[in-house]
Amino acid sequence: MRVKFLFPDQMGGQRETVVDVSDNWDGNREYSIGSTGGNISHRNSVINNTMHNVRNMLLERSGSWGAGHLSTLKGDKDILYVTISGMPCVIQKDGTRYRLNGIMMAKQHLLYCISKAIYASCRDLSIDELTKYLYRIIEQTENITYALENRTPYKFVSMALNPNGYERSTWVDCRLNVEMTEDGYAIEISDGVWGSIDAKSLNTFIETYRFGRNRGNWRLSPEELWSRLIGEKPTSSQLKLMMGFLAQNRTSEMVADKSKAILKRYAEKYDWCKLTKSDGIPILYVRGKLCDWKITARTHLHTTGGAQNCTIQYFQPSGSWSGPFCVNNTHHGSCLGDQMVCRAMALRNDDKAKGIVHTLNITEGGRCKVKF
């Protein structure tokens, strides 16, 4: 069976790649992968949508296709041969586990690796380049890649006295640096103090605090975390320094600092945008090709996770602002600064963006009196 995948590109067109699957169904199928749709996920929505289609195509029988549509991996020892843009792969089912080219892994990681390889094959990579890319993402799980780029989340309960003198507990969310070492990985748990951890344990640690899963036994207090990674209990002074370090790396404070830095750096770099504030709320003015735009924050700088943390207005020829209206993020976790800057980049080229984002499809706009 031959399957064609169509992916959206940045200019509103499509890129395609072909996947050949060894099965008993002689036919063709086509998937058009959107950048939105379904539940907003922690991962890139294009990859998330590709994983959904790969799951239906290879690993699970879909009732809507009818019995015998695909020879999916339904038996305990089934083997499926897949060719991604010329790159051969062998997928095997071994009980409840799966193997990709002989390497055992969980089903979710298998789906992630195959989907990433399918998407990467759109970039006209050679078979050798695509094979090296596949093995790199096999060895380094999505969670570890995420942690190396964004730090790993960690949270613990902190006890403090309230104004009435009673002890109360609060959750402290923070982010910890992760680095690759010769023997595995290391997590910075205090200022300049790194604890060693192997890839499997690190992946479980990240899943515990990123997704709230209860696999393994990594729900640890700071003292327990130190003992597990360092191999001995911390002294009272070491624990005190560790608590101060974790407090300095609170997620909310880091996000607020990042938002401020992103907005300031962006506004200083380009002369077609201007950053102002109204009652402490950031406002970013953008001079587009068709008209002027105003991006206004809906929340405080420390907020993350929302798909619409800012609103957009455009200046009308009549001399007033039209809106506000919203543009959705395709995934969770973007800070406010990221969201405002991404929208500004699209609005700068509003003549092209309006053909991709339907809420930007204005017919006529004007120029405001803001000095850029």
Descriptive report:
The chain is α+β, with helices and mostly antiparallel strands and 372 residues long. The chain has three domains: 138 residues, no CATH class; 102 residues, no CATH class; 108 residues. Helix content is 33%, strand content 28%. The protein is built from ten helices and 17 strands. The strands form four sheets. A seven-stranded mixed beta sheet has the order 3-1-2-4-5-6-7. The protein has a five-stranded antiparallel beta sheet with strand order 13-14-15-16-17, covered by helices on one side. The chain has a three-stranded antiparallel beta sheet with strand order 10-11-12. Helix 2 runs antiparallel to helix 3 and helix 8 packs parallel to helix 9. The radius of gyration is 25 Å and the shape is flat. The protein starts with a strand and ends in a 19-residue tail after the last helix. The relative contact order is 0.08.
